[in-house]
Design brief:
The chain is an alpha+beta fold. 21% of the residues lie in helices and 35% in strands. The protein has one domain (7-139). It is globular, with a radius of gyration of 15 Å.
Length: 144
């Protein structure tokens, strides 16, 4: 998982399996809550989600699994459809995120990552929690 990767892009791989639960426009930003308890519980204070603030948000597209446009309107009900984040292979903005419902394309200038309790956290702290989780998970799997 490239360590020197742009956090605006890398966060989507770090939040693998997270479910998008709330999406709302706030002025020029887009705020998105991602529920991912196994990762979030490793950061204090206790909670189950991250709040991502996409600063100077420019655009959104939902594509089907073939890459055809399904929607370019950001609808709040997007958040209630159980979309889970899988990964991204993007190297630059806009970021194209594979999800359980096709691809999500997001264009924005900057990202702020906060806990659902309000504390802003650096990307590195989230990455470290993720790395530790998967290292422990791997250690639990018996060698063949």
């Amino acid at each position: 998982m490239g360590e020197n990767m742009d956090p605006r892009i890398a966060i989507w791989n770090t939040l693998h399996d997270g479910e998008i639960t709330v999406v709302a426009k706030e002025d020029a930003d887009l705020v998105m809550f991602v529920s991912i308890p196994y990762l979030r519980e490793r950061l204090k204070p206790l909670g189950d989600s991250f709040a991502l603030r996409l600063r100077r948000f420019r655009g959104f597209e939902l594509l089907d699994s073939e890459g055809r446009k399904k929607s370019s309107e950001l609808q709040e009900d997007l958040a209630r459809s159980g979309i889970e984040i899988l990964s991204t292979e993007s190297g630059a903005m806009p970021v194209k995120i594979a999800t359980t419902m096709g691809y999500l394309v997001l264009d924005f200038d900057d990202i702020e990552i906060a806990l659902d309790t309000g504390r802003v956290v650096p990307y590195e702290e989230v990455l470290q929690a993720c790395t530790e989780y998967w290292d422990e998970w791997s250690a639990r799997i018996p060698p063949k």
